[in-house]
Write a structure and sequence with these properties.
Blueprint lengths: L11 E7 L4 H14 L6 E5 L2 E11 L2 E10 L4 E6 L3 H8 L4 E4 L11 H7 L4 E4 L8 E4 L8 E7 L5 E8 L2 E8 L3 E3 L3
Parallel strand pairs: 3-7
Antiparallel strand pairs: 1-5, 1-6, 2-5, 3-4, 8-9, 8-12, 9-10, 10-11
Length: about 190
């Protein structure tokens, strides 16, 4: 740990471990302490990496219901941008809910540039689906509404799905948006 308080040193990102479910409380408390003690020069920011997941919640009146949910990428961890000094270490380490800095023993290790680039990207949107390959699904909107098909392929981003449906007495492969189909429960 650096004992001098010279702030010409560049702030780096560190990872702190928290009690489960305390990530937001730790970040909020740290922001308040930094503001109250005027430590903005030492502790410059916090980040809780998350992704936005679109969860489907069933079908209502023929339309698929879905909601966006934020899901933490690394539960129980908070990223802190700070200049490591005895004072800044002590402030962060003694916040209620913080268990430790991530690093060998009691020595915090700053994240590399490559690691932090992964965390600072815009939130990722992921679509969660309740069916898989080979499952029967019903199309709930569009020209083929109420058609039933078998899932042949799901795109890597889960936004599109290829179905095999019976059209004019022949099996036909079509591609539709994932939000346009619902699983047929058996």
């Amino acid at each position: 740990m650096n004992t001098n308080t010279n702030t010409t040193e560049e702030a780096k990102w560190y990872v702190i471990h928290t009690y489960s479910g305390y990530e937001n409380k730790v970040a909020t408390n740290l922001e308040k302490i930094v503001e109250n003690r005027k430590l903005e020069h030492l502790i410059q920011g916090m980040k809780i990496p998350f992704e936005t997941v679109i969860e489907t919640t069933g079908e209502d009146k023929g339309k698929k219901k879905s909601k966006e949910v934020e899901r933490k990428l690394f539960p129980s961890y908070v990223l802190v941008k700070m200049i490591m000094t005895d004072e800044s270490w002590h402030v962060v380490r003694n916040i209620r809910g913080v268990t430790a800095f991530v690093g060998p023993g009691s020595k915090p290790v700053a994240l590399t540039d490559e690691e932090i680039q992964k965390f600072e990207i815009d939130p990722i949107t992921v679509t969660e689906i309740d069916f898989g390959l080979g499952d029967s699904v019903k199309i709930i909107e569009g020209a083929l509404k109420d058609s039933v098909g078998i899932v042949e392929e799901i795109s890597s981003d889960k936004k599109k799905v290829k179905l095999m449906i019976s059209m004019f007495g022949r099996q036909t492969s079509i591609e539709v948006e994932t939000l346009s189909v619902v699983a047929i429960k058996m």
